[in-house]
Amino acid sequence: MRLGFPLLAVPLLALSVARAEAVEFAFSGYLDARVLAPAEEKSWVQGGLGKFRFGPDRGNFRFVEAIGQVQASFSSELSAIVVGRLEPTDSAGLDFLEAYALYAPRAAGDLSWSVKAGAFFPSISMENDDIGWQSPYTITPSAINTWIGEELRTIGAEATLRWNAGAFGTLSVIGSILCCNDETGILMADRGWGLHDRTTGLLERIRMPDATIRIFRQKPPFYSGEFDEIDGDVGAYGGIVWQLPDSLGKISVIRYDNNADPAALSARDTGWDTRFWAFGARTQFDNIILIGQHMAGTTSVVSRGTLMVTKFQSAFLLASLDWEDWRFSARGDVFQTRKTPAATPSPFSEDGGALTIAVSYTGIANLRLAGEVLVMGNHRLEYRNDGLPVHLTTSQAQLSARYSVN
Fold this sequence. Notes:
- This protein has a single domain, classed as Porin (Beta Barrel).
- Helices cover 6% and strands 50% of the residues.
- It is built from four helices and 18 strands.
- It has a 16-stranded antiparallel β-barrel with strand order 1-2-3-4-5-6-7-10-11-12-13-14-15-16-17-18. Strands 8-9 form a two-stranded antiparallel ribbon.
- It is globular, with a radius of gyration of 21 Å.
């Protein structure tokens, strides 16, 4: 069941509880153009096994996307947010990334709470906190946050209860009930981890690698949904975030379970039972920020009467230095998947790692100039099916000019 257009109505329901003359609107967004030295491998976006957003088929200069966010504030406590994207090359054009209402009443002493309802990114990332699920540190986010942008969207409600513990900081408890993420895990199982900054739109279907489809004796191209309800069951996630005092940082622990039936089928898609733990920490020393995150879980599907399980895990460590109008960042990623059962090594299992170096400059009004070099090494038997070596080392360089509107 596709819920795309009905989802966009969720934040607009807030209009029924506020007078129209009290509404204040705010718009923010950006335009992003890039000069690229792309990887030699065909991108997964175009049906290849490449992990990056860009391959060699589209040239070295691209207008990448335009992101726009509209926020309607009905009071100091109630607002609605819609985030849209115009992408001229890699999708059908206009799509939506988020559409939700946020209610955050004033604190009652040391306690406060808030609730979101609609479609939005789950509160998991320590890295991606810019508009449109972007990172302020690098052009390309970590493998963990790449996957969250690809396959996860909370379609439901998320509530947060916060306790201001004074000298001990602030402790937050997060809980969510969600639907319509039953296909989550198909990319992880069939393509593996990715490294790119392209998020999946709420209305689109994503392309699976052609080499994978041929293994299953189907004819490419094949597209899968991500944000559909197949089995009629709800999923959930929850966790704890501890914001340390005196800007020392924060620590988070999140458990996610989409509670999908791995044997469920729709007319076009299958259910994937996906669950994971995510652990994160962030701290700051003067103008240096350190971020670390680890994720480990499984995704399962019933294929030809057999339960196929993919175990996945990834971790990264990022360091970023702010110096006047400049930001210098470096990040190391490691990632792995294991497909079971398998009498012989599975073509879908992988071991890999990546190093990202980035620098950005914000000394010109409304403009962020950024450069990045990303090098990845990966071992995956499936690469043979696309004429690639099973031990693959690949790289990508980007120069980005992002013009922001506020």
